[in-house]
């Protein structure tokens, strides 16, 4: 596959396309471009909005013109960060009201940039090499170009990188914290062409060093006269306010003079009419929000509270009924009235196309339920859903999903038995799962998976303890898996599945005592002649109950058992 990819890449680069690049150029990067200075001719704007959605968006971290190297450059951190208008963190606070009134604990006036309304972001830090957009959904290509990277990239998480040299720009863009492999569903892979701005290239997520779903977007410019390890340098696509100083402070760091690269001067979707930030609305808290036209009366936003049924990876039976629900908080300023949860992509799993969301006030929380049915085929399955407003707009933070694993075959060559105590159905708050397998030379481990829990052991006879105190009542698939030394990732284990039903409220359990130890003589004792006296040592009870009776079982040429007796010693007859 690696050789095939390399061959395809060479074909793309050598094909007679308007993309000015060849195989040797790709190995070295774009054509030689001189460093930017304040006297350079500004490049033509070519970038469009790198995420879907119209109207307002929020920037939570800005580009640092002092030096975008993720290091403090001297003095207090507040003095190290300079944004594109010349503001520093030391001069201004985190957020302002649109009438110029600073937020609590802040001082200093608000300052416009390029005669448009602009407020400082509500969060930023020294050394940042791009922009963090607090958005979700699809990441979009900011311009046409060649995909030069699509994989995991350290703190950046899952990243797609696009080189735009066919535009004569010497620029490339990076899109960080994407959902791993989400680019593949759009045919975006190493060596493929992105033919236009606005093409989906992945799903915005939270991978890598990230504290929440957002898109880290950065722009890099090539300087062929620099040392090899410094030929690509970050630059600010919002440019630099030359009324503050003719020279961008970035020049002292990496030689770059930033220019505004947005078509129309501001991020906007390809095909949308040019817009500018909206005018001030007296008393409105902007806090880093930008948008076009008249400011909306409220801003819709949702936050998943990490409470749900059927968490990611839950094991279910084929065709099992599922009441999937998520707990969310309305963190926006709009009351949810007429909002819906709509199916977006993946597998619908028998669910409806949309579900009406009950009216939810701003600041309130709600559980959103969707009835589903597990697929009948084994393996991993996923479906994605979106919260939409009455106008059909996607709500920021409102992308939800279900990811379940459907149990496969229940046959096995080595599993002897797999039982649950107490038997299903029950109201127990603890269920003991007894698994026994035949040992063979390739045996590595066995594990039990139930819901999002996984319990593993290298023993061949083991009792797993499933705590059901906080487990929802209903049907649960419990899967025993056995893996070999050659299957370290549990990709093809032997399986046996049982369906367990929890009923009512969790109640104290009454489990069988722990298996006693045969101390005289010992397990698997072989004797010829007179039978020996057998004595057992109790090993306690999971519920703390006293052990009062014993059962001895003799297996061999002659089968014999004692039945239940009060003594811990017996002589077989």
Question: What would you say this structure looks like, in words?
Answer:
By secondary structure, the chain is mainly beta. Among the domains are: 105 residues, Sandwich (Immunoglobulin-like); 93 residues, Immunoglobulin-like (Sandwich); 54 residues, no CATH class. Helix content is 5%, strand content 35%. The chain is built from four helices and 32 strands. The strands form eight sheets. Strands 1, 2, 4, 5, 6, 7, 9, 10 and 11 form a nine-stranded antiparallel sheet that branches. A five-stranded mixed sheet has the order 13-19-18-15-16, with no helix packed on it. A five-stranded mixed sheet has the order 21-27-26-23-24, with no helix packed on it. The longest helix is centred in the first third of the chain and has 13 residues. It is elongated. The N terminus is likely disordered.
Per DSSP, what share of the residues sits in E-state strands of 2 or more residues?
35-45%
Question: What is the number of E strands?
Answer: 32
CATH topology of the domain at 302-406: Immunoglobulin-like
Oligomer: single chain
The structural class is mainly beta
CATH superfamily of the domain at 302-406, please?
Immunoglobulins
Mean pLDDT: 74
């Amino acid at each position: 596959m690696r050789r095939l990819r390399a061959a395809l890449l060479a074909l793309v680069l050598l094909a007679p396309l308007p993309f000015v690049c060849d195989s040797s150029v790709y190995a070295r990067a774009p054509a030689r471009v001189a460093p930017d200075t304040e006297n350079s001719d500004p490049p033509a704007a070519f970038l469009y909005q790198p995420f879907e959605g119209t109207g307002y968006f929020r920037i939570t971290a800005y580009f640092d013109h002092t030096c975008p190297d993720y290091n403090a450059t001297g003095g207090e951190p507040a003095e190290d960060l300079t944004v594109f208008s010349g503001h520093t963190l030391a001069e201004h606070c985190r957020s302002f009201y649109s009438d110029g009134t600073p937020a609590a604990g802040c001082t200093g006036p608000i300052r416009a940039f390029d005669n448009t309304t602009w407020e400082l972001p509500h969060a930023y830090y020294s050394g940042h090499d791009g922009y963090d957009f607090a958005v979700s959904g699809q990441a979009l290509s900011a311009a046409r170009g060649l995909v030069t990277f699509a994989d995991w990239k350290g703190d950046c998480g899952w990243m797609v990188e696009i080189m735009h040299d066919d535009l004569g720009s010497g620029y490339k863009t990076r899109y960080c914290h994407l959902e791993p492999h989400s680019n593949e569903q759009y045919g975006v892979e190493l060596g493929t062409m992105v033919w236009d701005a606005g093409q989906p290239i992945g799903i915005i997520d939270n991978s890598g060093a990230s504290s929440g779903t957002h898109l880290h977007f950065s722009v890099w410019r090539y300087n062929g006269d620099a040392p090899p390890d410094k030929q690509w340098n970050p630059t600010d696509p919002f440019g630099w306010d030359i009324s503050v100083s003719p020279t961008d402070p970035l020049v002292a760091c990496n030689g770059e003079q930033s220019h505004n690269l947005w078509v129309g001067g501001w991020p906007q979707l390809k095909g949308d009419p040019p817009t500018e930030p909206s005018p001030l609305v007296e008393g409105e808290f902007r806090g880093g929000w930008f948008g076009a036209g008249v400011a909306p009366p409220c801003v819709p936003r949702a936050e998943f509270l990490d409470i749900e049924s059927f968490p990611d990876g839950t094991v279910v039976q084929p065709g099992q009924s599922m009441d999937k629900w998520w707990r969310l908080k309305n963190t926006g300023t709009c009351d949810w009235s007429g909002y819906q949860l709509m199916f977006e992509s993946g597998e619908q799993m028998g669910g409806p196309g949309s579900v009406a969301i009950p009216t939810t006030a701003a600041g309130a929380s709600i559980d959103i339920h969707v009835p589903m049915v597990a697929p009948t085929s084994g393996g991993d399955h996923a479906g994605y859903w979106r919260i939409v407003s009455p106008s059909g707009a996607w709500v920021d933070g409102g992308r939800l999903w279900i990811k379940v694993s459907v149990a496969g075959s229940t046959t096995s060559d080595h599993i002897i038995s797999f039982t649950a105590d107490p038997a299903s159905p029950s109201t127990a708050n603890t269920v003991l799962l007894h698994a026994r397998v035949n040992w063979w030379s390739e045996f590595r481990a066995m594990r039990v998976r139930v819901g999002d829990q996984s319990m593993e052991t290298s023993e061949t006879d083991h009792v797993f303890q499933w705590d059901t105190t906080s487990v929802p009542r209903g049907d649960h698939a419990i899967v025993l898996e056995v893996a070999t030394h050659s299957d370290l990732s549990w990709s093809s284990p032997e399986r046996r599945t049982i369906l367990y039903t929890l009923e009512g409220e969790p109640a104290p359990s009454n489990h069988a005592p722990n298996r006693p130890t045969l101390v005289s003589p010992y397990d698997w004792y072989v004797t010829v002649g007179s039978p020996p006296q057998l004595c057992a040592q109790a090993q306690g009870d999971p519920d703390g109950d006293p052990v009062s009776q014993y059962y001895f079982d003799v297996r061999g040429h002659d089968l014999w058992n004692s039945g239940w007796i009060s003594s811990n010693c017996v002589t077989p007859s």
